Amino acid sequence: MEKKIRKHRIFDRHTGLGLFLMMIGGLFLSQVVLGGLLSLAVMRTGPDFRTSLTMTAGFGGLLLLAFHYFWFTPEYDWRYKKENIPAGFKLLLPILGYWAILFGMFGFFAGRIPFGPITLTQLCSAAGAGMTEEVVYRELPISYMARQWRDEKKIPLMVLIPGLVFGLVHLGNGLFTGNAADYLLQAVLCVFFGIFFSAVYLRTGKVLPVIVMHGLHDILVLSAASYTPELPDSVAVVWLVCEGALALYGLFLIRKEKRVQIMALWDRKWNRQESGR
Fold first, then answer.
1. 195-212 pLDDT, tens per residue?
2. SS3 label, residue 128
3. Number of domains the chain contains
4. pTM of the model as a whole
């Protein structure tokens, strides 16, 4: 028996509100509600609440992703086709050049290989951030915008909006901690990184490659930062240039010549050829 497509009154009629619910609501649901409930179970094994919440953050994102797929099935074809996953990793290859520069600087100032061991909690935190942030700021909002907007001219917005929100959320962290200056730099870097990852996801429709590379990036940065002396402020300029270049590369991926291909991909994923939506 064919599954009936659900009616989504709020998401169908109010795109702005839908985006807010996808990103901010999704972040709250994955981290506070789902992650919080899972952390209570982990606490019974010994860790305190903060450690448990850190360790379960990624699982909250995974559950949110599963719910998103369930809620929009069968309208949304989320199934993973093997041919698109290698394409996603291929489009992400420029990040390797960035890593060579970034960790080369870490190694130069440390006078050795910059990486060192990290704790299980740190590993879960870094991997969990990659999972949750890519679900909340890539999979949910971009797939939703591709559902709502059948206009090639709006493709840049599908990349820029998640990137900007990703940066603003990290800036908000600095306002709450009272360390706004450092977080301002982090927010700008997150905007650049967000544009890069958003463009790759929009081109392929597969979130797995960006989850893997985002998580790996966070793990490597955490490992290097833990075993490297404080870097000079001038290094921040190199970071900005490199991540700015990744953002420009991301915008290149969604250039006009590729937009018909992008729209065709998302028409297939939302089954618009069959449904006529």
1. 999 999 999 999 999 999
2. helix
3. 1
4. 0.91
